[in-house]
Amino acid sequence: MVARKSRRMEGAPAGAQAAIRAIRLLKSFTRAHSERTLLELSTAHGLTKTTAHRLLSALESEGLVARNPRTGSYRLGPAAIALGLEALQSHDLRARIHPLLERLATETGETATLEVLHDGQVLILDEVAGPHVLSASGHIGTRWPLHATSTGKVLLAFQPAALDALQEPLTGYTRSTLTDLGALRRELERVRERGYGIVLGELEEGFNAVAVPVRDALGEVAGAVSLGGYAARLGRRELTDLAAHLIRHID
Predict the structure, then answer these.
(1) Measuring CA to CA, which residue among 237, 207, 200 is closest to residue 132?
(2) Contact at 8 Å (CB) between 214 and 222?
(3) Which strand (E) or helix (H) includes residue 85?
(4) If DSSP codes are grouped into helix, strand and coil, which group holds residue 108?
(5) Which pLDDT tens digit goes with each residue over 70-102?
(6) Residues contacting residue 177 through CB under 8 Å, at least 6 positions apart
(7) Looking at the domain that runs over 7-83, which CATH code has it been given?
(8) Is-contact 152 221, C-beta < 8 A?
(9) Structural fold of domain 91-250
(10) N or C: which end of the chain has fewer CB within 10 A?
(11) Contact indicator for 76, 66 with CB cutoff of 8 Å
(12) What is the largest CA-CA distance in the chain?
């Protein structure tokens, strides 16, 4: 599918078009698509193969992408990895919340994460795994759908503009996933009323989680902290108790 030219591209400063296209190429690489061919990238962004190759060559010269010598496909390069690590280290919210994640993981035994809104999904900005042998671990940088995660529900509830990122029909990941937008909106009302969001096997069967909002210095919701684990340990009652525990620590 050929990508349409966005309003941001149309209103971009003169001379910035190539930079924007290069940035979009970089953002094409995800955990699910860690390697992409020249054809895939050019098609996805509505570029000719010549233009895409020129941009990728420039990125490769700076170490931001690298080529698989066996297949010729592109992947993120060492310079992109270094930039990502620098971004993590310099992120104020992550620095402030990390000690809390360590304390929560130790006290509850479950995996604690800090997640933020990114490109219409939730992104794990930081994570501390609990000591349980069988514990949840998504790994930093993983992205999850907004409507099927506890953190996503929190961000949708307290950052209403995030609802614009949802596209119907909502994807069903399990039999419990909320795929009706009306039902999801009613759930988000409950999240706002009680101050936390939960999921019961909505992203993955047998995995439950609870999340609460994290606010910045101005009082705006900047992310969400979650605790998640297997349903055998975390039923609705346990999640409610953990929600109270989270709220006490966040406040």
Answers:
(1) 207
(2) yes
(3) helix 78-90
(4) helix
(5) 899 999 888 887 777 666 554 588 888 999 999
(6) 147, 148, 170, 171, 202, 203
(7) 1.10.10.10
(8) no
(9) Beta-Lactamase (3.30.450)
(10) N
(11) yes
(12) 58
